[in-house]
Known about the structure:
By secondary structure, this protein is mainly α.
Amino acid sequence: MANEYEKDEGGAGFVMGLLTGTVLGAGLGMLLAPKSGSELRGQLTEGANTVGRSATEGYRKVAGAANTIADKGREFYDRARDAVSHGAEEVKRYTREEAATESRSGLSNDPIRRPGGM
C-alpha cells in the first residue's frame, strides 16, 4: 500500500485532481451563494475561463517536463551506447594486440601451451 505513494507518475495526476477540485469547489460555491441570475452567470463564465487558462497552463508545464525527461533519457541512452561500443572496440583491439604479440614471440600466456609445460 505504501508503494502506491512512492511511484513517480509525474504531475499530470496531481494537476488534473487540482483542476477538478477547483472546478467543483468554484461551481458549488457559486451555486449555493445567493446571487441574481445574471450575476451568477457572469461568475460562472469568469470561473470557467479561469479554469480553462489554468488547465492550459498546467498542460504546458506537464508537457514541457515530459519533453525534458524524454530528452535526458535519450541523452543517457546515447552516452551508454557510445560507452559500450567504445568498450567493445577496446576489447577487440586488446585481443588483436595480444594475439599478435603471442604469434611474434611464439609463446603463449597459457601455461599448458607454453613450451616446456608449466
